[in-house]
Amino acid sequence: MKKIVFIFLLFFTKLFSQNIDVDILKTINRNDMPCWDKTMKGFSFSAYPVGMVSPLGVLAHGYIKKDKVLIRNGYKSCITLGVAMSISTALKYSIQRERPFKKYPLDIIRRDEVGTASFPSGHTTSAFASATVLSLSYKKWYVTIPAYAYAGLMGYSRMRLGVHYPSDVLGGMVLGIGTGLLTWQIDKMIQRKKNKEVTNSSVAE
Description:
Layout: H1 2-16, H2 19-29, H3 34-45, H4 47-65, H5 68-95, H6 100-103, H7 122-138, H8 141-160, H9 166-204
């Protein structure tokens, strides 16, 4: 686990030092488009409400249908969002990366109000965590495609608004998806262990 964290941090540290990160942001952020920028600001605002509704929606759906699998998925979804956002916040405070519009005030246009720390993008983390839990809970293309399209546009909006670097967005994407996959994998291991214990108990009797 330590090795994975080290590689993750090494990759982003290397990316931070490359001009490509800033060049991509400049391309996305340049030129004022009032109508589009207003839309992106409103869209960006939806990240946290959607992040709360998604797992609770899965959980509520499970209870309404009296579906034990869906109920379990709902709880896993809540855990995923909680863990992903906690890690995101911890990374922001520990890394303390300066916002792009502050570091490059002559090149990057600020179009939204934000906090101080830049890495990773909390909005992107929330959006991709939501997309992942919905995809894993329902496993339907008509859920997966719109969910990830929404998450991708969320990442774009944060760059368009000049508040995040591409690497911030990529970090949020990896964190959101990774937390969801890891939560589901851990649950599979727990379920396997329980089934094995039940089987061994039955054989012993």
